[in-house]
Amino acid sequence: MSRVVMPKDDPTWRFALGARAESVGILLEMQDVDGQIGLGYASEVPHLGYNIDVMEAVVRSQVPAILAAGPLDRRSLVGSPWKQQLPAPVRSLLDMAWHDLVGKIVGVPLYRLLGGAENVSLRVNRILALKTPDEMAAVAAGLAAEGYDHFKIKVENRPQSLDIARVAAIREAVGDKAVMTVDANQSYTAKEAVTFGQAIHKYGVQVFEQPVPQRDIDGLRWVRERSDLTIEADEAADSLEAVVAMLRKDAVDAVSLKLSKLGGIDSLLLAANLCAAHGIPSRIGAHVGSRIMNAAALHAAAALPHLEPFAELGEFARLQNDCATGLEVVDGGITVPTAPGLGVSLV
Ligand SMILES: [Mg+2]
């Protein structure tokens, strides 16, 4: 296990819940008796309560005992999706390394082990950090010139009028065809979210992600019932139990799925299929960190027939010092790797 620090190309990168000049995570190398190595990666996510020191301490204190059962005994690694003892990002870390290792042992790409389709490609939704409207529009124009056509605009409700100006400036910069979503990271009240949604509807925004505080499920539903935009849960969907609770209350139109929130590939697939069973689309959300983690999410996506065709799997492109190579965004799209396991390798 080692700690990886990935400086951001833009050290002023900021969203509604904080600012940070680097992304920090854990690299896990899981070795079998023949010396084959499976790779896992999990990022620190302070706003979801995933602290790097705690994550490392859990791996150090608990993983040796778990691995003593044998690295291929996955039940002892991650438990059942419903009965969870380790924190979700640590489960995801172990689960990812296990899947990579098994894929390498049997010599097939992970998506095939998961029953996924061949040659799956997704459009990449790039996240625009909080800045002035003109600055955000300039960043968006630069990304559009690289081939991106999906953009997620961070907003913060300080004040709402500034967020509207951001959306307007970015639409002007990227043209009518680009798909735009907004992400408030919990910074709006339900009432404010409805008026903001009405104000930005004319700019062709499709998705409004996590408008209200994480545990305000009734607020999400209240906004959903009064909004023309697709209301999507992100922070609110931080466990299988939370996803089920929202589905039962008809609280959202869509769910953002992440390996570290749900605790690994099996749990992500289960959450996506539960959403599909309720007629709710799901999408692969941002996996900010190494290509290892993004590759794992992409293989999982390939196994999901009802997934939205765009995902936030390109944020590694703005991070430096990745410990892995073998996955790149090309013309604003990303294609599942075909080498065994996750299909990425250490630099
Ligand atoms: Mg989000």
Automatic annotation (TrEMBL):
Q: Tell me where in this chain the Mandelate racemase/muconate lactonizing enzyme C-terminal domain is found.
A: 133-230
- What residue stretch is flagged as signal peptide? none
- Record InterPro entries: Enolase-like_C_sf, Enolase-like_N, Enolase_C-like, Mandelate_racemase_C
Q: Does the keyword Metal-binding apply?
A: yes
Q: Which domain of life is it from?
A: Bacteria
Keyword terms: Metal-binding
Note whether Membrane occurs among the keywords: no
Q: Which SMART domains match?
A: MR_MLE
Do you know which PANTHER family this protein is assigned to? O-SUCCINYLBENZOATE SYNTHASE, O-SUCCINYLBENZOATE SYNTHASE-RELATED
What protein does this entry describe?
A: Enolase C-terminal domain-like protein
The species is Micromonospora sicca
